[in-house]
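Look at one such:
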Amino acid sequence: MNIEFNGQQLSLPEQVRTFHQLLQWQQLPTTGIALICNQQLVPKSQHADWPLNPGDQLEVLTAVVGG
């Protein structure tokens, strides 16, 4: 399956079918992030089970602390 992830085209292995699995596969943190899927904010409570579909456009945003 092919998706766009943070502006880059990705071809996902068969075992990656949810957002949580994508984060694990890419070795990214699962906390302190926001998920935008096809220009819609996905509630944090749905991150673990959010299904990925061919052609999805995902953006992951992280909070930055400082000042």
